[in-house]
Amino acid sequence: MIEGEEKLLQIRWHGHACFEVTNDLTIVTDPHDGKSIGLPAPSVKGDIILVSHDHYDHNSVKTVEKEGSIVVRESGKKEIKGVKIEGIESFHDEVGGAKRGKNIIFKFEVDDIIFCHLGDLGHVPDKNLLEKIGKVDVLFIPVGGTFTLDADSAWETANLINPKIVVPMHYKIQGLSLPISDVDPFLAKNKFKVVHVGNEIDIEKDEIPEEREIWVFSL
Q1: How many alpha carbons fall within 13 Å on the CB side of residue 164?
Q2: DSSP β-bridge partners for residue 91
C-alpha cells in the first residue's frame, strides 16, 4: 500500500454473529471461541470489540483481544478512537427478556457507512426501538430462529429497518453445533438481489446499492 493511502473498508465473517469491520481500525462483533460451537476460532484481533450479550457463543473477548482493545458491552452513545458507537437495549426473546435476558443492538459508523449489528435480537422491533435504530446502510441480522429471530420475523424486521444491505447471520452452517435453521428459509422469502460475497468484501460509501441487496457470507 502506498504511504498515506487510505485502507479500504472491509467486512469479513468469522462465523455465527462474529464479523470484523476493518480499515485503519478493526471492529469485531460478538466473538466466539470456535471450539465451543464447532467452528474455527476467529483469526482477528480487535481494536474495538462489541459484545451484544453475555452468552458463550457471543462473548469470547479473550479470543480476539490484544493490548489496548476496548470492549463495549453496554447501551449508550460514545466515540472510541474516532468511531461513533451507540448501544441500544433490546431483548433476546419475545417476552421482554423473561426467557433469555437483554440484548444490545450496536450501531456504528465507519467511513460514513452506518452499520447495525442486531446481536441475538429475539423480537420484532416496536416503533420506539425502530426510532432509536434510525437510518442503517448495512444490517447484520440473525435469521436462524430458536434463540433469535426466525426467517419470518427477520424479514419483518429487515423491512421495518429498511437498510440498503442485509447480511444474514446466526444460522446453521457446516460444523456449527447449535440447533438453529440454515439460511435457506430466509432466502426463500427474498425478492431482492442476493450476492454471495465469499468470506470478505471491500465496501465504499459510493458503492452502497440504491436497491436493497442481500449479502451472504461464507467461511
Answers
A1: 16
A2: 102
* Cβ atoms of residues 144 and 171 within 8 Å: yes
pLDDT tens sequence across 88-143? 999 876 777 667 878 999 999 999 999 999 999 999 999 999 999 999 999 999 99
Distance CA 197, CA 214 (A): 10
What is the average pLDDT score of the chain? 93
Phi/psi at 138 (nearest 5 deg)?
-125, 120
Q: Residue 156, class by beta-carbon neighbours within 10 Å (0-12 exposed, 13-18 middle, 19+ buried)?
A: middle
Which residues does residue 87 pair with via DSSP β-bridges, in sequence order? 76, 106
Phi/psi of residue 157, nearest 5 degrees:
-65, -45
Owning domain of residue 206: 9-217
Please check whether residue 1 lies inside any domain of the structure: no
Amino acid at 164: K
Residues 53-91: tens digit of each pLDDT: 988 889 999 999 999 999 999 999 999 999 999 999 998
Domain of 185, CATH number, reads: 3.60.15.10
> What's the total number of domains in the chain?
1
Indicate the SS3 state at residue 173: coil
Residue 114 lies in a domain: yes
Residue 60 maps to a domain: yes
Instruction: Name the burial class of residue 77, with classes exposed (0-12), middle (13-18) and buried (19+) by CB atoms within 10 angstroms of its CB.
Output: exposed
- Answer yes or no: is 91 within a domain: yes
**Nearest CA among 106, 91, 100 for reference residue 50:** 106
Q: What sign for the dihedral angle of Cα 22, 38, 68, 132? A: positive
